[in-house]
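Thread title: Can someone regenerate the structure for this chain?

I was given the following input by a collaborator and told the matching structure tokens would be attached. They weren't. Posting the sequence so someone can regenerate them.
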Amino acid sequence: MTHSVRPTSGDERQRRAIVRSDCMLHSPAESSLAVATQRRAPWRLGIINGSVGALDPQGRVAVHPALGRLLEALRERVPTARVCMPILPERQDNMTHLLNYPGDAIVRLPPLATTISAQRYYLQTRRTVRAFAAENDVLFIRLPFQLPLCLRGLGKPKVLQVLGNLVEVVRASSDYRGPAKILARWFARHSSQSIRRLVAEPQTRTVTHGQEVWQLLGCRHGRTVVSSCIFKAEMRPREDLRLGEPPRLLFVGYLRPEKGVETLLEAFGLLRQKRELKLTLVGGIDRRTGAGERIWQRISESPFRDDIRTTGAMDFGESLFDLYRSHDLFVLPSLSEGTPRTLVEARSFGCPVVATRVGGIPSSVEHGVDGLLVDPNDPAGLAVAIEQILDDEPLRLRLIRAGIDRSQTRTLEAFAADLVDELEIVARESGHERQETPG
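Best answer:
Regenerated them for you:
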């Protein structure tokens, strides 16, 4: 995908130096999980995961690509790994990754599609989870989980992966109104309290996506991480760093209320009144929400609708990577977040970022170093930050270079290694030793 550019201007030597130095940082051989040291664990790893999957016509489990890549990376490092997860009767559009696990390494939970619908499966889920825990020596539990009480008192050493702050997600969402809002807030508080109790259980370590959740839960043992699902070899930054004419803004994410897309559309309108600009929105709908309809209506009513492109959901791969490379600025105006993987992806391809100062984002982006951070729900402030990067060539190039450098440390390989390190610590502390043999 290409777009017109201005004639060569500015410090071209600096641009070429950035591209040349960063293209030398990686090679496919360095990034492949297959060449990593193969380690045989004498302990059995059980992964309890609330994110849903579904069966394809051949009976294989399909999941979201980010989840599939992570689960496979964990099994690559811990070959005893098995996963226990909800399976829906119908495959969703975002389930494009066929999970490369043997059939006997997948234990199915009932279709826990939503928190409300999951309640009818409480007893069945509890029985399955407890039986699964009994068959394994160490547990890795991804949270939030639709039925958090099912996770209490499993009696096994465990690592908790806490993806975000559910209370803030509900607070930021416009999908819940009236009694539904009250019920959603109650469940969010109940889930957070259950997670705190899990964190306090013996033989437990916690991994949170960003510092905010770590402090909120009062964690003492574990670490904070920045999520990623992209291999180092896939991080090939754009070669032409000149600003497009007109410049192109990019958003990638689900069309949920908490993603702040309406704030972005308002900021885009403010900027478009003063200058030529394009906006691409990439993302679909992964749950029942009115956000998509509101966004599309707002675009259709905009006087600048011809400058806004929507692609719908896209598969995770080269087509999406090319979009990152062909755009001049990535914007994530979220109202609530963990540590979004899209911020790692954008910077890895040489696309500087503007994001909001919420959740775990400040743990991923350092303001003024490898991106700019703004307050949420502030279209005018967002527009100022966007314009600052577009108009300040030295700043834009510094952000690109620092973003590429930072992303090199936040690969899927590094993310999985952090999680396995925590699993090894809790296994060792509980008396399980791990033996390593060359692959």
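The chain has 16 helices and 18 strands.
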